[in-house]
Amino acid sequence: MDPGSTTIKPLTEETWDLFAALVERHNGIFGGCWCVWFHPDCEERNKSYDRNRALKQQLVTNGVAHAALIIRDGDDGEEAIAWAEYGTPVELPNIHHRKQYLADLRAEGEDEPDCRITCIFVDRRFRRHGLVTVALKGALNLIAQAGGGVVEGYPRMPGEKKTSSSFLYNGTRAVYERAGFDFLRPKGLKNTVMRRTVEPA
To answer: Which pTM does this prediction carry?
Structure first.
């Protein structure tokens, strides 16, 4: 299904209902995660669909959960059809293969980035229309508006076999390369660490 023309809006209290409707259409995303997995450990995280929902909404209200939402004009008004989650390492500390990542960071004498992109999700009705690329660019633009800095992403390197979309939660290396990211090193079996600098808008 062609999404038609779209716009990018930040995830805020004002756009929460659009974000929530997208998550609800997909049963909470990955078993009810509500995109809270990458946020700091807390008593509420990953306890249940409802508690994850409440936690995500509270993080948005507190201004410590960020995403670029892709919005289209649907039959019943605006609807969010994709997002790219981003934030500081303090806001999003729980990346996959974190112990390896931190060990490699120390070995290379590098600092953590100013911002990281941890999850990109597209409504199943609108996949294969390049919206992962649109969401990634939307996140980079919002990061630029917030002052820019060093940005990391951790996309997948697909192998010869077809990869389930559940493993492509952050896009592919090729998508990030087209967005100006440089490959730094592998992370885990098939994930990567990629970086670019975003100038302030």
So the answer is: 0.92
